Amino acid sequence: MVPTRVKISTLLFSALFALLSGVAVAQEQPVQKKLVPEKYKDWSKLCETPKGLDQEICYIFQNITVKDTGQVIMNINIHYPENLDKAAMVVTLPMGVALVPGIRVQVDEGEAVGVPYSVCLNNGCRAGFPLEEKMLAALKKGSKLNITFASLQGKGTKFTTSLSGFTSAVAALKP
To answer: What is the per-residue pLDDT across 159-168, written as a single tens digit (0 to 9) for each?
Structure first.
């Protein structure tokens, strides 16, 4: 049987080693500056350089959150991908959506556009598409953006978000 005194000293040494190891690891990690988005009424613009890339990427976005918890339940992101000569919109919704119907994107009471999901990752399922001039003009003139999707039970859900500040935000984004 190991004496209690040895057990306690071993535990203390292990705890001290873990604590000091954690400090060393924390010191090795580069401190990332907190990115502060530019505000354009209900839209925001953020520029960042992702790890492993040399080029800064800028995008405008709007998050729809649960009022009580602040949890993001929908993210709308607009950016200029390298491989396109126009802006693209990516809508991210939480896991648990029906994938086959995709989403419907509609400005005010205009024509709804169907968009398939392209991928589901840890942060949700994404549907993205290039913004044709007609859709971009509608977004700039519109007052609300409607995103409709289906739950796994087949129930349709519509999120409506403000387009206030969109025109200024997208103008600031242009390459």
So the answer is: 999 999 999 9
Judged by DSSP in three states, 18 sits in helix
Residue 33 pLDDT class (50, 70, 90 cuts): low
Nearest to 45 by CA among 166, 161, 143, 135: 166
> Do 13 and 21 meet the contact criterion of CB atoms below 8 Å apart?
no
Contact, 99 vs 120, CB < 8 A? Answer: yes
Q: Assess whether 18 and 57 both reside in one domain.
A: no
Query: What's phi and psi for 9, nearest 5 deg?
Result: -65, -35
Residue 3's identity, in one-letter code, is: P
Per residue in 63-116, pLDDT tens?
999 999 999 999 999 999 988 889 999 999 999 999 999 999 999 999 999 999
Query: What is the rounded distance in angstroms from the CA atom of residue 89 to the CA atom of residue 97?
Result: 19
What is the Cα–Cα distance from 98 to 87, expressed in whole angstroms? 26
Q: Let me know whether 13 and 53 are in one domain.
A: no
